[in-house]
Inverse folding.
């Protein structure tokens, strides 16, 4: 169990949307499927310490490359 926890912790410290994700994203042409506001609220209310990964994810949520993943009306006014 400790090994799994260590692996998961290591993955959380990595960039949430890494280069492999970006490559797959370039191929995605389907409809938007993420509720940005709900995701932000879940991250902010979580008791888990995401460390730097949280900062990286929050900065990536405003990156225009990911905009087409968010459902209409789910974005906050930054």
């Amino acid at each position: 169990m400790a090994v799994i926890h260590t692996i998961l912790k290591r993955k959380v410290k990595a960039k949430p949307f890494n280069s492999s994700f970006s490559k797959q994203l370039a191929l995605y042409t389907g409809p938007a499927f993420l509720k940005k506001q709900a995701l932000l609220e879940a991250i902010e209310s979580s008791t888990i310490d995401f460390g730097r990964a949280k900062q990286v994810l929050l900065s990536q949520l405003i990156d225009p490359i990911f905009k087409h993943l968010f459902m209409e009306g789910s974005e906050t006014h930054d």
Q: What stands out?
A: The radius of gyration is 14 Å. Residues 2-69 form one domain.
